[in-house]
From TrEMBL:
GO terms for biological process: biotin biosynthetic process. PANTHER family: CLASS II AMINOTRANSFERASE/8-AMINO-7-OXONONANOATE SYNTHASE, LD36009P. Catalyzes the decarboxylative condensation of pimeloyl-[acyl-carrier protein] and L-alanine to produce 8-amino-7-oxononanoate (AON), [acyl-carrier protein], and carbon dioxide. Keywords: Acyltransferase, Biotin biosynthesis, Pyridoxal phosphate, Transferase. PROSITE patterns: AA_TRANSFER_CLASS_2 (PS00599). Pathway: Cofactor biosynthesis; biotin biosynthesis. This is 8-amino-7-ketopelargonate synthase. GO terms for molecular function: 8-amino-7-oxononanoate synthase activity; pyridoxal phosphate binding.
Length: 392
């Protein structure tokens, strides 16, 4: 390190002094419901591996075969000579699954959000965004010079007001998470679409936590509400329920055509390796021909959440496998997480600025990979720790 970067030492120390510094927890095992992390065997409730596809034998086999058939890397960006037939096949199959004309896969969900919002929206336009939207949407908005309006979370009167206030814009985009990752609640996409139609605004939904979870065979929030053909930009990720990696945009052919030429996070990055592409294709097939994973996810969610509510925990407004356990002050959430860790359950505390100061929580994600016994063990530990801390 040169002296010019000494300031970094101070900044890191500042973070530590303010109790804002996080070390990266390290796993010594594959990702699954039971992992060894930071040297300890635990049940994890902190993963987005909703369908437990990270270790599905068919996903693994597809990736291995892809390496034999296609080699490892792609060596170029999609627009030059990085696109293989399998990249296009994945996009066709994904579009079919999502019920759109076409789709485009980005290297990650964050790249899909950044590149798409940046490409679509100019200085004459306005973006209207839910206050609890994901950081990658906020990044995308920041990459534009568009006018921006933030509406209160899921507040349709607030959205209407923002639409009225932006009538002068050339084009407008309403953007919202489909499932909000800190509370597990769903956006009222049916009402958003109605308002968008009334005010002639485009709609973009981020289905990162809805993919593989909501709708028939996990087709997502558009399917959940039966809004096919009425949502302009259906964004999602292959990194969570599908257990792989990648983000995508599903919509009309023209949307794909435009983004392949204008989305900087698509244009300036190397194409996904074949192993990833084939793993993603397999995951999309599995969710359709092995319905038990999706069913188990929801059975497990019900099993876990009912017991947590019966114990008297405040699980907020969740409608999905994301289960917040709201405790109030940050120190309580940190203590709950620490005590659960001591009991062999890995759940992370979520505090300000991710949530309001008096709404600190831990967030427990149920997956299809958990057995009923795993979940009962977690509930039992929550009961023990919750009583000891006076939470229930
Ligand atoms: C995780 C997440 C993303 C980013 O997806 P990656 O594929 O992990 O980059 C985008 N939006 C939301 C709402 C997310 O939860």
């Amino acid at each position: 390190m040169t002296e010019r970067t000494n300031w970094l030492k101070e900044e890191v120390q500042n973070l530590k002094d303010q109790n804002l510094f996080g070390e990266l927890p390290v796993m010594e095992t594959p990702a699954g419901p039971r992992i060894r992390i930071n040297g300890k065997d635990v049940i994890t409730l902190s993963s987005n591996n909703y369908l437990n596809f990270t270790n599905h034998p068919r996903v693994i086999a597809a990736a291995k075969k892809a390496i034999d058939d296609w080699g490892f890397g792609t060596g170029a960006v999609r627009q030059i000579n990085g696109t293989m037939t399998i990249h296009n096949e994945l996009e066709k199959e994904l579009a079919e699954y999502k019920g759109t004309e076409s789709s485009l896969v980005f290297v990650a969900g964050i790249a899909a959000n950044r590149g798409t919002i940046q490409a679509l929206m100019g200085p004459e336009d306005a973006i209207i965004s839910d206050e609890l939207n994901h950081g990658s949407i906020i990044d995308g908005v920041r990459l534009t010079k568009s006018d921006r309006k933030i509406f209160p979370h899921n507040d349709m009167e607030g959205l209407r007001k923002a639409l009225q206030e932006t009538k002068g814009a050339r084009r407008r985009l309403i953007v919202a998470d489909g499932v909000f990752s800190m509370d597990g609640d769903i956006s009222p996409l049916d009402q958003i679409v109605e308002l968008a139609e009334e005010f002639d605004a485009m709609v973009m939904v981020d289905d990162a936590h809805g993919d593989g979870v909501l709708g028939r065979e996990g087709r997502g929030i558009v399917d959940h509400f039966g809004l096919h053909g009425r949502v302009d930009i259906d964004m999602g990720t292959l990194s969570k329920a599908f257990g792989c990696v990648g983000g995508y945009i599903a919509g009309d052919q023209e949307l794909r055509d435009y983004l392949t030429n204008r989305a900087r996070s698509f244009i300036f990055t190397t194409a996904h390796p074949p192993a990833i592409v084939q793993a993603c294709r397999e995951a999309i097939k599995i969710i359709q021909d092995e319905p038990e994973h999706h069913k188990r996810l929801w059975d497990n969610t019900k099993h876990f959440q009912e017991q947590m509510k019966d114990l008297g925990f405040n699980t907020g407004r969740t409608q999905t496998p994301i289960t917040p356990v709201i405790v109030g002050e940050a120190s309580k959430a940190q203590e709950l997480s620490k005590r659960m860790w001591d009991e062999g359950v890995f759940v992370k505390p979520i505090v300000f600025p991710l949530v309001a100061k008096d709404m600190s929580r831990i967030r427990a994600n149920v997956t299809a990979g958990h057995t009923k016994e795993d979940l009962d063990e977690c509930v039992e530990k929550f009961a023990k720790v919750g009583k000891a801390m006076g939470l229930i």
